[in-house]
Structures are given as C-alpha cells and as structure tokens.
Amino acid sequence: xxxxxxxxxxxxPDSMGGDLKALRHVLYTYFRDVFKGGVHILPPxxxxxxxxxxxxxxxxxxxxxxxxxxxxxxxxEFDVLVDLMVNHIxxxxxxxxxxxxxxxxxxxxxxxxxxxxxxxxxxxxxxxIDKMFLRRPLPxxxxxxxxxxxxxxxWTTFGKTDPSEQIDLDIRSEMTKRLLAxxxxxFKKNNVKIVRLDAVGYVxxxxxxxxxxxxxxxxxxxxxxxxxxxACEIELLPExxxxxxxxxKLAEYGCWIYDFILPYRILDTLINKNSEAxxxxxxxxxxxxxxxxxxxDGIPVKPDLDDLINTKEARRLVDVCVERGSNLSLILSDxxxxxxxxxxxxxxxxxxSVLGCDDDAYLAARAIQFFAPGVPQVYYVGxxxxxxxxxxxxxxxxxxxxxRHNYTLDEIEQSLRKDVVQRLLKxxxxxxxxxxxxxxxxxxxxxxxxxxxxxxxxxxxxHLHVDMKTNKSVIEYVDDDGKLAxxxx
Length: 489
Fold this sequence. Notes:
By secondary structure, the protein is of the alpha/beta class. It is built from 16 helices and 20 strands. An eight-stranded parallel beta sheet has the order 9-8-3-2-1-15-11-10. Helix 8 (about 260-270) packs antiparallel against helix 9. The longest helix has 16 residues, at about 175-190. It is globular. The two termini are about 30 Å apart. The mean pLDDT is about 95.
C-alpha cells in the first residue's frame, strides 16, 4: 500500500447524510473525482463515549451507522483510513466486562494493567506519579469485582468520568498483541488501507518517566506494529500531540506524521498579514506529513507549538478567534502552562468562520495547505464552508461540537451551490491532477505581505502567489500545450 499524493476527506460516519450508506452515496454522487487520496472515516465502531473514541471492539461497526459491507463498498473506490485507539479500549467492551465479573480469573485479565505490573504490591507511589504527563488527576481507576466484592486498580490514562470509560491496554502482553493482530487482519479483510494510531504516545508505562513517548521503548512497539501493518498491506499514521520535536523524531524514524503546526501558522499569517513565520516553517518542515486546517477537535496550539510561538502574540491571535465565535480548550495542569500563564490547548471553530467567512481568505488558506508538501486532508465541515454551530454546543455542552455539524443530504446539496465550495472543489481537482506536485518543492523569495510557493517536475511547474493585503491567490502553471496559464483561486 502506498499513500496517494492526493486530497483526502475527513468525516464522521454519520455526518454526511446520516450513515455509511448515505456517505457512500454522497461520495459517489458528488465527490468521485475529488477525494482521490481517500476518506478518513472517524471511528465507526460501537463506542461508549467521546463520539467514537471509546470503542468496544474493532470487529464490528456501530449498527446505527451500517455494517462492514458499507466500509468495503466505500473502499472499492476510495482508500479508507480508520482510527485504532492503540492505547485503550472501552470499559463496556466484552473483554473488560468479563474482567469486572471475574477479576484475575478472567481469560482477558492480562489485557489490562493492574498496578502490581508496575509497583510492588500494587501500591502507587506519588513521587512516580508526579513525573508523569497526566490527562486526569490520577492515572488509574478503582473498580469493584463482582465475584469477590474486592477492588482492583487499573491503569486509565484518559477519561472524564471516575472510574474512566477508557481502559488502557497492556501492550507488553502477548494477549494484547494477539488482539491487535486480530483487529488489523479484520481491517485488511474489509478494505481498510491506512490506520491512524490514536494516542500511541501513551502506550509505554515506565516508572521514573513521564509515561509519554518513552524512548527507546516506543520505537520497539512501533517496529512491532509497523511489521504487523506491513503484513496486512496497511499504511500507518501515528497521531502524537506534543512538542514538535517529538513529531520530527517520528519523521526521522520514517513514519508519516501529522502537520499540527500548519493550521495555526496559516491562520496567524492571514489574520496578521505577515508571512515571515510561515515561510520560515515551510522551508524546514519534514515533507512526509498529512496536512490539515480543521478537524473534529480544534486548531492545535499547546503543546504542539511550544517554543515556536510568542505567547503574547498568540494571546492576541486567540482573542481575535474568540471575537469571531471560537471557544477554547485549555491546559488544566499549571506545570504545562506557559510561564506567563498562557494555557490555550486548541482553538475550536470552523476554519471558515475563524477567517471571518471571507471566501478569498479561506481559499488562500486552502491553497497554501495544498502547496505545502504532504497529503492534504479536508474536514467535511471545511469542505462545505460550514460556519460555527453554536446550537450544537448549547445542546450538548461540548465545545468541540462547534465544528461537528451533521449535514442532511439537502444541506449538502445547498452547500454545494455556494461559490466558495465550487472554488474549493476546483482547487482540489487541480491539486489532485497536476503532476508537478509529485516533483520538487520550493519556497520563493517574497515580501512579508505575500507568499510565493512553487512545484516543478520535468517541463511542468506551478507557482502560487498569495497577496495578504487582498487575500487574493493566483496560480500560474504550464498547461497541456506547454503554455503559461493563469488560474485565480
């Protein structure tokens, strides 16, 4: 399996028409020549929370979404990418429910991390916990075992409830490895071509460390899972939100990585009309990346851009975003805030809204994304130039729902009539089909108020010029007749 250097769609299984059958209909009817790079279907599995990110199993599809037949059908035309929460599984899974009934007598007991696997007598030591990068006050939950009435403390990195809904898997266990292998073989059988390793940075638990991206142990696990994926003809995309240097280590190791820096850089450039930081970044970033502007969470800030941004300038940018209707995800731990108290983890918004619903600014952002080396992904709300959904936030109390609108088929058809959406589709087709994007990339000299990017391959070349003063973008390229042509984005 080779990842195609063409544009991918990101969508929930139920966000474009209501279920997987509707998604296939929408893809085949409107976007057959648009998403040649594939479709990232956010978790379509049975789940007990976190909109799919607390899966019970990867062997079934949530019945309200459809079946594996629907995934296979989409996979006949589009490369399908799905998530594997490699760090954890749902408390409601058959595996953990059996453990809750029988405790250590359960045939699945070794899938989980009882505290005696780390500490003598299973008694946690606060000094060790103090060193850890925590996602909840304590890295474990206490459960009562039905048969004995006794208690078991089990490692749980994530989860907003107590006890947590998301139970960590012991990746050192042979049983866990067999289970992961079963999941991968099922993916292969059902036409899945790419797997995103969600939360992979947390899989190593080692006392005396932060328990996040523990080196060199993490590479031993990556080697094992890459070998497994290769045997199933599946590509891997590790997902790590952390200091950018960790992402770069993964890139040096030969992995695909996410460009979590680009969305902020482009936003900052277009709002402040200054391309200097973006140009410096585009000259030095690794090329083997998946790029995005928007996603089901938010625009990453901390810790992804630590040491890359001035927090006073970032605060001013964040204030503009909030004025335009964004809400914020904040860092809770004082230890991981900036020295001046800056605590913004993610800016949650539709990318179209945060650019003031300015069509030219939005198309400029997409043009820069598509010219940056890597595999471009377009989130479904961004595809349809969707605006902030305040009603969903109000209904659910979940800030991330601002950018998770579920579109009916009628709403999709209405959105496709918008000029900005048709312009975006034209730009995607150009990015998919123009061969110079498989050649050599260059950042050309420019003033602070503009961006000039170029791709060349053989006798083909295309040049992007974005004028920040007007937000207008133009692409000059060599056409099929060998003549210089111009295309206003």
